[in-house]
TrEMBL record:
Organism ancestry: Eukaryota, Fungi, Dikarya, Ascomycota, Saccharomycotina
Protein name: Ribosome-releasing factor 2, mitochondrial
Record carries keyword Protein biosynthesis: yes
Main location (coarse class): mitochondrion
Chain's gene name: MEF2
Gene Ontology biological-process annotations: mitochondrial translation; ribosome disassembly
Keyword field contains Transcription regulation: no
Family: Belongs to the TRAFAC class translation factor GTPase superfamily. Classic translation factor GTPase family. EF-G/EF-2 subfamily.
Residue intervals of the Tr-type G domain: 19-307
Role summary: Mitochondrial GTPase that mediates the disassembly of ribosomes from messenger RNA at the termination of mitochondrial protein biosynthesis. Not involved in the GTP-dependent ribosomal translocation step during translation elongation.
Native source species: Maudiozyma barnettii
Residues involved in GTP binding: 28-35, 93-97, 145-148
């Protein structure tokens, strides 16, 4: 074979492989059926030959002992599989419980598309609304699952999707029920494929049997009618966005909704999904093995490949990024630079540390020297693997757009979640060709870590266990950065903070049972914070060595969302995640002209002030030593550092003392305590509503914001557009739902939205269960930090 032919073949192979890759996530509210659906996907893709069941604790993706015993997903699991030679799918099954939201956040960072799962009985639930918002820029497919359950409402859920999630939709398939003429019972058995005009039926006793049949316009007139109306509605919706489709419809299909070819519909629907204009909807019952194969087809048909996805968010604003059909993403026109993001770290009992990475550009190769631009340290890749279902497959390289895992001892201590890894795609030691201040400082902007709101004390069982406790805690935080470990300077106690009670309970379980730490955990308490009420006077410092600083502290009223467009005369740097900032006023002395005279770079001086500010703020305020929140350290531009200083140690000490001194000068009355306020979403049966609402307002200091029927969606001005869209959207009758209503079995639930202080919500789960005989459900999210009123302050301080 000639050289030119070989090059051409390589190009074609690479191009088609890239186009086939789908990096997708499964997202939804707890219990919607994410893990069950993933398990079926693996089975139908031929990756497993038995179907695991979450209720038996033997699924592939829920492999942690805590996941298997509790039947819930705690950490997201990434697996790869091929779908009928059409797509190479890298899938991340994410947890649905709000306490593990960080797992969803970090998965979304590296995903190109999502499958959102809905429980057909529960409809659009609170956590689904949250993750939908979090994944706003990511193309999504909807799968209405659990269609086999009593009270399943496909059409009701479609309307809720439009109105609550404010999205346009396209029905790719609609449910098919078979009617028992004797009992009049409707059984969900399959779907009507609206695009290919077929009826697809599954046999519940045999997961491998699928029957695809034509729909006879005479014999199956009801189904045929539904197919016609669904196709008409689909084509009308697509036509609103695509004039070209209208032309083809009128000219090639003679204006006949059933004649327009499925390939034309699919092409338009793909473009509109990639553009986030429309979310395709499919339905099924994963537990009964119904509807999963069409869902996998839809993943390939409508979700983006790595060359059709959004560009990563990087720190080099001047670097041009573009997609090349054969090379994938090109950053700064550099075809030999490989850029990857570490998005997850786990410790496997057999394989040790495993770091999940997404390769954004170039190729990551086994045995190559790489550079971690976050830690600024090089290391060597020991072993690369791809997770094939739960079996790791050793590979030599990971191409652009792929997701894989780094393992082996060389990664220990060298990579954490959120780190960017740079390497040369072709030369093993090619790092030398990258410039120290250019490519080797390139970072994919970090993953946002949410603020922890609950805290628990962790004590070693005996003094001899202290070292192993610290090691285990370190491991825990490496795997889950939404946990935070701090030491109370006053008491010397080690504190573990997390997103919720369940989060801390699982972390404690892991510490003791997986990491073997001999520790005891205390009572769960709220993570309070303190804020200063007024700006301090300016603290000046100067000495004979040549250091000079002027520093003041100021409270920040609300959360600072965007620091990029602050005044030109100052630069804002975040100090950890408590809405604290360092403000460096513009220095006339330390401009570029002068900077070369300094031994220390401007960046390292700023980094030292950041470190000292974080330490000083962690020591806490005067009310009860709680860490400071929403405070800024302002450094006057008139500072000086001796030109010959090479290490920043003195800057650290001087600035930390200055901040501490400023804080100490304030009286206790000049501090306020902040407490977390949570937003609550409570679902209850109408008969339980009175008692639940009374209890919330009297015992939990809750403010009720709204009470809605499941069936009625809020009709605010903003929603008028989507309400009209929902009205216009064709949906078939919800046959089982209508039956349920006449027999009055289904008591449609009420949805209560409220806000309450977190300190009043500890153990609310148990309380709600006892008030509602286990029928109530609730989710709680951090909303804001709020000043504690003086009358409550005493109550809280006395309770500490
Ligand atoms: N009837 C019925 N039950 C289902 C279906 N799919 C899932 N389930 C059940 O719903 C429960 C939750 O399923 P999971 O797959 O664990 O749900 P999940 O969304 O992964 O849950 P988390 O990961 O914990 O958020 C289990 O008891 C499943 O057996 C379905 O199609 N029909």
């Amino acid at each position: 074979m000639g050289f030119a032919v070989r090059v051409l073949l390589q190009f074609v192979r690479r191009h088609s492989t890239l186009e086939k890759i789908r990096n997708i996530g499964i997202i939804a509210h707890i219990d919607a059926g994410k893990t069950t659906t993933t398990e079926r996907m693996l089975y139908y893709a031929g990756k497993t030959n038995r179907i695991g069941n979450v209720d038996h604790g033997d699924t592939i993706t829920d492999f942690l002992p805590q996941e298997r015993s509790r039947g819930i997903t705690i950490q997201s699991a990434a697996i790869s599989f091929d779908w009928r030679n059409r797509g190479k799918i890298n899938l991340i099954d994410t947890p649905g419980h709000a306490d593990f939201s960080f797992e969803v956040i970090r998965a979304l960072k590296v995903l190109d598309g999502c499958v959102t799962i809905f429980d057909a009985v529960a409809g659009v639930e609170a956590q689904t609304e949250k993750v939908w918002k979090m994944s706003q820029k990511i193309p999504k497919i909807c799968f209405i699952n659990k269609m086999d359950r009593e009270g399943a409402g496909f059409s009701r859920t479609v309307k809720e999707i439009i109105m609550k999630l404010n999205t346009r939709v396209a029905l790719v398939n609609i449910p098919y029920f078979s009617l028992d003429p004797q009992t009049k019972e409707q059984t969900f058995e399959g779907v009507i494929d609206v695009i290919n005009k077929k009826l697809i039926k599954w046999n519940m006793d045999d997961p491998d049997s699928v029957n695809v049949v034509d729909i006879d316009p005479i014999k199956d007139s009801t189904l045929y009618n539904q197919l016609f109306k669904a196709r008409e509605s689909l084509i009308e919706t697509l036509s609103e966005f695509d004039d070209n489709l209208v032309e083809i419809f009128l000219e090639d299909a003679n204006g006949d909704y059933l004649e327009l070819s499925s390939s034309v519909i699919n092409k338009t629907l793909r473009n509109l999904t990639l553009n986030n204009d429309i979310a395709p909807i499919l339905c099924g019952a994963s537990f009964k093995n119904i509807g999963v194969q069409p869902l996998l087809d839809a993943v390939v048909d409508y979700l983006p490949s790595p060359i059709e996805t959004r560009l990563p968010d990087i720190n080099k604003k001047d670097y041009v990024m573009k997609f090349d059909h054969s090379k994938g993403l090109m950053i700064n026109n550099n075809g030999s630079m490989s850029v990857s993001l570490a998005f997850k770290v786990i410790t496997d009992p057999i394989r040790g540390l495993m770091v999940f990475v997404r390769v954004y550009s170039g190729t990551l190769k086994n045995g190559y020297n790489v550079f971690n631009t976050t830690t600024k340290r090089p290391f060597k890749i020991g072993k690369l693997v791809r997770m094939n279902a739960d079996v790791p497959e050793e590979i030599n390289h990971l191409n652009t757009g792929e997701i894989g895992v780094l393992t082996g001892s060389s990664i220990n201590g060298n990579v954490s979640t959120g780190d960017t890894i740079i390497s040369h795609s072709i030369k093993k030691d090619g790092l030398k060709s990258f410039k120290k201040n250019e490519e080797l400082t390139l970072k994919i902007n970090p993953i946002d870590v949410p603020e922890p709101v609950f805290t628990v004390t962790v004590e070693p069982k005996s003094l001899g266990n202290k070292d192993s406790m610290e090691k285990a805690l370190k491991r825990l935080v490496i795997e889950d950065p939404s946990l935070r470990v701090t030491v109370d300077e006053e008491t010397g106690q080690t504190l573990l903070s997390g997103m919720g009670e369940l989060h801390l309970e699982i972390a404690g379980d892991k510490l003791v049972n997986t990491l073997g730490a001999q520790v005891e955990l205390g009572k769960v308490t709220v993570s309070y914070k303190e804020i200063i009420n007024e700006t301090t006077s300016v603290e000046d410092y100067s000495d004979e060595i040549g250091y000079k600083f002027s520093i003041s502290l100021e409270p920040l009223d609300s959360s600072v969302n965007d620091i990029s467009n602050k005044s030109n005369n100052e630069t804002w740097y975040p100090l950890g995640s408590d809405n604290n900032y360092l403000i460096m006023e513009k220095s006339h002395k330390y401009d570029l002209e002068r900077e070369w005279l300094l031994q220390l770079t401007y960046d390292s001086i700023v980094n030292s002030i950041i470190s000292s500010s974080i330490v000083a703020f962690q020591k806490g305020g005067k009310i009860s030593n709680f860490p400071l929140h929403s405070c800024a350290v302002r450094v006057n531009g008139n500072w000086e550092v001796p030109l010959d200083v090479e290490k920043p140690n003195e800057i650290l000490v001087i600035t930390r003392n200055m901040i501490t001194k400023s804080l100490n000068k304030l009286a206790t009355s000049q501090y306020s305590m902040l407490q977390p306020i949570m937003s609550l979403n409570v679902d209850v049966k109408p008969s339980d509503m009175g008692v639940v609402v009374r209890d919330l307002t009297s015992d939990h200091d809750a403010v009720i914001l709204s009470i809605d029927d499941r069936d009625s969606t809020e009709k605010s001005e903003d929603n008028l557009f989507f309400n009209k869209i929902a009205e216009k959207q064709y949906v078939p009758d919800d046959v089982t739902l209508n039956l349920m209503k006449t027999s009055n079995v289904n008591e449609s639930s009420k949805h209560v939205k409220a806000e309450a202080p977190l300190r009043k919500m500890i153990s609310y789960n148990k309380k709600l269960r006892s008030l509602t005989q286990g029928r109530g459900d609730f989710q709680m999210y951090f909303e804001k930090m709020e000043r504690v009123t003086p009358d409550h302050l005493k109550e809280i301080v006395d309770d500490l």
